[in-house]
Amino acid sequence: MKLAKIKALVKDLSYLAEEAYNAPFRSAVARARREQDDLFMLLIFSEMMGVPNPASYYTLELQPLMLEKFHDWHLRMGMPHSPLDQFRCC
């Protein structure tokens, strides 16, 4: 019984220490991931915006999967309306 309580306490303290160590870096990691996601979205939709994309053959089938995130992406990139002529999301 006491051993189980000690193990639970050690586990809780370990979790607390890990969170305290990772907390300062959480925003930097989130920002880096957001930047990578933005670049990936640009890569996927670049052909539709008139930018030549050498990987368009591979990214074409990803477009339907990423359309639900497209509106948030173009607003984050500073475009008030969809840059795609054939796709209106606003």
UniProtKB/TrEMBL annotation:
| InterPro entries found in the cross-reference section | CC_star_Cory (IPR047717), DUF7990 (IPR058303)
Pfam families (UniProt xref)? DUF7990 (PF25952)
Q: What is this protein called?
A: DNA helicase
* Source species of the chain: Shewanella algae
Q: What is the lineage of its organism?
A: Bacteria, Pseudomonadati, Pseudomonadota, Gammaproteobacteria, Alteromonadales
